[in-house]
Specification:
Chain lengths: 812, 199
């Protein structure tokens, strides 16, 4: 989230699209209710299903899953055509005026530079014209036909209300009503918030779904505002934290990136990470990259990371591929190219797509290790459970080691929620049996592996035997020790660069924040964006002061919010060019003539003069991007692409199938149903019920009882067409698998008319498996395609094709 | 909303208030006092309260764990009740159908208690000691790493990577565990490293 749950109370309009907060995030949704009750805010829900969020909405608009970009670009087109733009904001705070290189174009659904064989682009034209002064060329009058604004205007012009209706199946009058309500928020004193979750990410163009809304929010001037922003509701309790700390194949903590193999040394690595400002005076905060990187290396390898060895640069593995995400992992496993796999609190047999492929892949491993508080399906993938897990146990040669770990109630430490709050928690119970904390388990793996290397030698032991492990008990680092290491320490005394007589941190002390980090090896910090979480003031994540001056919803003394305890990102943009709040009733920070001050930690240097320095300090432009240059694999603007399995062809680019830049493995392409397939005519989607949390609550008796039985949801129209009765049994199958379920015939789903043809939606809730307290059942991943988002590889769970037929029920 | 009075203080103060003032003021005599003594105390008064957060979704509602026994004193602690934390700014004491049933998660019958090994081709898990399990894991890891670790690519560039064993990290472990996991995994040169953010 750019904002926070408690900030939602400040909004005028909530749009829930790509999520279902009332059911999936019920206690966060109360802040929508607050906004509605206390300031008359309105709620719009756009979803293929009439969800519980929709049931309390002021306006519900149905949409066919996988067509959100057409809808959103339609809204942007509406705003541009009707002059519903917050012009002062757009001109000053976005790259609308930047001139784009001549070669760049968009034609027949493709941007310049497409290579069909590689399913990738040569992105060299996706950039600004750079002037002789070294800065991007801009046209503040927005008259140059090559400026971003005019390119955008042209790009979205095809998404008329009629086209939106044809693609999305949203009736034109409903779409226009939504567009009009949103457009009202182009006023500087009206603000909309966007609440989204996996309904947007789980698509082969998930990142662009989110970009499309972010662009709309910029055009309306809603980023940086109280009650505004882009608010990813997120899934699990610490998925924000795990991502911040960089537990992904291509990341280092704090959104630094792992070197690729072309980057042979530290200087080459840094040469593409200099982030020279693209406009005069801009902060371009990533210019500090080297400080964060070197401090990270020092946190990893302590005294062994020296200037002489490039701070142990060679000890980081170098990537030969863009990433080894979970889809690639299972692809490699299925090709027999992997020996071992370790799952820590993750149940991929139900969570990753194409169940059959997953079982085949796990069966080819030599060893599998699971660490979990619960008995997961993944740990028992080799066990035969009839139709729910039809495997030949004796043939599976994988050795499986299952380790019992503690759960939240027995563990100490911090979790980062979607508001970016790091909240500390304490253990209240004794773990069952011999269950151990993850900290102990991971330490044991390290300590024992290190001992083997010391004793036996082996391949390149240096990064293992030199890993900084100066904990009081090497067998189990404490949460507090680790938190201090994440925060960072001054290894030598750190002085203020502006005033060398001023000490920022004495040698041996914790750094106050990331501004004290240095690139000469005199500081360490595990995750720079968390610096400040545990400093000499103590454990700021454990703060429990509920004061909230003037009830802005900031709660600045509750826990710690990264970065730098900032509660609303880009908050400089809440004020106009001169530093005065766009909306005095939503004052956040203002320029007082000498500095920025207000309710929040300024997201800009406190003395950076307005007009000189732009609000988007992480970008070398100092402004936000309506045109994202070459930063996304599938285009600098979002464009409508159908899901890989779609009930209709692409109306705006008939020759393009799926997202043209999404990675697809050869065997998986053969397992996709054709567009508008007669064999698989129905558009399926997956979701969670409010009583369930993924596969965990299967183990929880109360929740297993509340929603006991697996079902699929279909419309009355489809039921009538197929002769299916409510409560009757059906078979649902895709090109990859088949499941059996009871039918829930509902008014919540209606057929959508897309380009004159009815599209029936089949809803498949996720929860069931074959372990735990719940009845056995299937998950949607028995059916879903093995393909992810072009940029970040989130699997396409929300839009795929199935067929359905009534069947006789099991004999009781 | 400035809740300076914690829940614990409130319960404590309310209890004391009843004993010292209300009963006396209403003129109850010894019999009534003896009767009041005989009534079993409110169960939660004798428990240890611990602040925690709900592990499910990323709203991260504040919860209070009530346990018999206090871990901080080195005692066995059995959690007997979990409820929403009224001081928490986001949830203000409320919990959803999942959070309300957290006790059944903590006490689930399918909570794991012991390390287990399933041998190749076997149809069952067998209990092993932690030492056996961990020594076996690092043996398997080291054998694979020594056999498949790539120090230089075909162009002779140092790459120091290991792609034949992978690690899938969680989504509900603490940041501190995440950092420790990062250190342990990355120091081996492992590249097949991901978390649950994608799903």
């Amino acid at each position: 989230m750019t904002n926070s749950w408690t900030d939602i109370k400040n909004t005028d309009l909530v749009i829930i699209m790509g999520g279902n907060a009332a059911e999936a995030h019920p206690c966060g949704f109360k802040w929508v209710t607050e906004a509605k009750a206390n300031r008359g805010a309105k709620l719009i829900v756009v979803d293929p299903r009439f969800t519980r969020s929709a049931s309390v909405a002021d306006l519900y608009a149905p949409i066919r899953q996988g067509t959100d970009i057409a809808f959103l670009l339609g809204v942007i087109n509406h705003c541009i055509q009707n002059d519903k733009v917050q012009w002062d904001y757009v001109k000053a705070f976005t790259n609308a005026a930047y001139i784009v290189k001549d070669g760049f174009a968009f034609k027949d659904g493709l941007f310049t530079g497409y290579d069909e064989a590689k399913r990738d682009y040569d992105k060299s034209t996706w950039d600004y014209v750079i002037g002789l002064d070294g800065y991007a060329v801009v046209d503040d009058t927005l008259t140059n036909p090559r400026c971003v604004w005019n390119l955008l205007k042209d790009h979205v012009s095809v998404y008329t209300p009629d086209m939106v209706e044809r693609i999305c199946g949203t009736p034109k009058d409903k779409f226009l009503k939504v567009a009009e309500m949103i457009a009202e928020c182009s006023s500087p004193t009206k603000v909309m918030t966007s609440m989204y979750a996996l309904g947007w990410t789980q698509h082969s163009k998930g990142s662009q779904n989110i970009r499309a809304m972010a662009m709309l929010q910029l055009i309306l001037g809603n980023i940086g505002m109280r009650g505004g922003g882009m608010n990813a509701l997120r899934g699990h309790s610490n998925i924000q934290g795990l991502t911040d700390v960089g537990l992904m194949s291509n990341l280092l903590p704090g959104y630094l990136t792992l070197p690729i193999e072309k980057e042979v040394d530290l200087e080459t690595y840094m040469s593409t990470r200099g982030f020279k400002p693209l406009r005069p005076n801009q902060m371009s905060y990533w210019q500090n990259y080297r400080k964060f990187f070197v401090s990270f290396q020092k946190a990893m390898w302590g005294p062994a990371a020296t200037p002489e060895n490039d701070f142990a640069y060679d000890w980081l593995p170098k990537l030969d591929l863009p990433g080894y995400d979970v889809l690639r992992a299972f692809e490699l496993m299925n090709q027999g190219k992997m020996t071992g796999y370790m799952c820590q609190g993750f149940n991929p047999l139900l969570a990753a797509p194409n169940r059959k492929k997953l079982t085949d892949a796990l069966s080819k491993l030599k060893y599998l290790v699971t660490m979990d508080p619960l008995d997961t399906e993944t740990a028992r993938f080799w066990e035969n459970h009839g139709e729910y897990n039809e495997v030949d146990t004796a043939q599976i040669q994988t050795e499986v080691i299952q380790l019992p770990s503690t759960c939240f109630a027995e563990d100490e430490g911090s979790l980062t929620n979607s508001s970016r709050w790091l909240q500390w928690h304490w253990p209240g119970g004794t773990p069952p049996g011999e269950a151990k904390t993850d900290n102990w388990i991971m330490a044991q793996i390290h300590v024992r592996l290190k001992e083997l290397y010391r004793r036996e030698g082996g391949k390149f032991p240096d990064p293992i035997v030199n890993l900084d492990w100066a904990y009081a008990d090497a067998n189990e680092p404490t949460a507090e020790e680790l938190a201090k290491e994440i925060n960072g320490k001054a290894l030598a005394t750190v002085y203020d660069t502006a005033d060398p007589t001023k000490v920022l941190a004495e040698a041996g002390k914790l750094v106050p924040g990331f501004a004290a980090l240095r690139d000469d090896g005199s500081t360490s910090s595990g995750c720079w964006i968390y610096a400040g979480c545990f400093n000499e003031n103590g454990n700021n994540m454990a703060r429990r002061d509920t004061s909230d001056p003037d009830e802005t919803g900031a709660y600045s003394k509750w826990a710690f919010s990264w970065p730098a305890n900032r509660r609303i990102l880009y908050n400089r943009a809440s004020a106009d060019l001169n530093g005065k709040a766009w909306d005095p009733s939503r004052k956040l920070i203002e320029w007082d003539g000498a500095k920025w001050a207000g309710y929040d930690v300024p997201d800009i240097a406190p003395t950076a003069k307005p007009r000189d320095v732009g609000p988007f300090i992480m970008n070398p432009e100092g402004v936000s991007r309506l045109f994202s240059r070459a930063m996304m694999r599938d285009g600098p603007f979002p464009a409508h692409y159908e899901p890989f399995e779609s009930p209709v062809g692409n109306l705006v680019a008939p020759n393009v199938r799926g997202n043209p830049a999404a990675r697809v493995f050869a065997d998986d392409f053969k397992q996709f149903a054709e567009p508008a397939s007669a064999e698989f005519p129905y558009a399926a989607t997956s979701y969670r019920l409010t009583e369930h949390f993924h596969y965990w609550t299967k183990h929880v008796r109360v929740n297993a009882v509340l929603q006991p039985e697996f079902f699929v949801e279909i419309s009355e129209e489809l039921a009538a067409e197929k002769g299916i009765t409510g409560g009757g049994w059906v078979r649902v199958w895709s090109k990859r698998g088949s499941i059996r379920a009871k039918a829930m015939v509902t008014k919540r789903i209606k057929p959508l008319i897309c380009d004159g043809k009815p599209v029936h939606v089949v809803g498949i809730p996720l929860h069931w498996g074959f372990t735990g307290a719940a009845r056995k059942g299937f998950g949607p991943n028995s059916l879903t395609p093995f393909v992810g988002d072009a940029n970040i590889e989130t699997p396409e769970y929300k839009a795929f094709l199935v067929n359905i037929e009534p069947i006789a029920g099991p004999v009781a | 909303m400035n809740m300076e009075l914690s829940r614990r203080q409130f319960l404590g103060a309310a209890g004391a208030g009843v004993a010292a003032t209300t009963l006396g003021a209403l003129g109850f005599g010894d019999i009534e006092a003896a009767h009041a003594e005989a009534i079993r105390a409110f169960k939660l008064v004798s428990t240890t309260e611990t602040r925690n957060t709900c592990p499910y979704c990323s709203v991260a509602c504040g919860v209070i764990l009530y346990s018999k026994g206090d871990r901080k004193k080195g005692e066995q602690a059995e959690i007997i009740h979990i409820e929403g934390d009224t001081d928490h700014p986001t949830n203000r004491g409320t919990l959803c159908p999942k959070g309300s049933a957290l006790l059944d998660f903590v006490k689930s019958e399918t909570r794991l208690k012991y390390p287990m090994i399933r041998k190749p081709g076997s149809d069952k898990f067998e209990r092993v000691s932690w030492d056996e399990a961990l020594d076996r894991i690092v043996r398997l890891m080291k054998d694979d790493r020594d056999a498949n670790f790539v120090e230089k690519n075909k162009d002779g560039v140092t790459v120091n990577r290991w792609t034949t064993t992978g690690f899938l990290a969680a989504s509900a472990t603490t940041n501190e565990t995440a950092w420790e996991t990062y250190k342990v995994v990355r120091s081996t040169g492992m590249l097949v490293f991901d978390n649950q953010a994608r799903v």
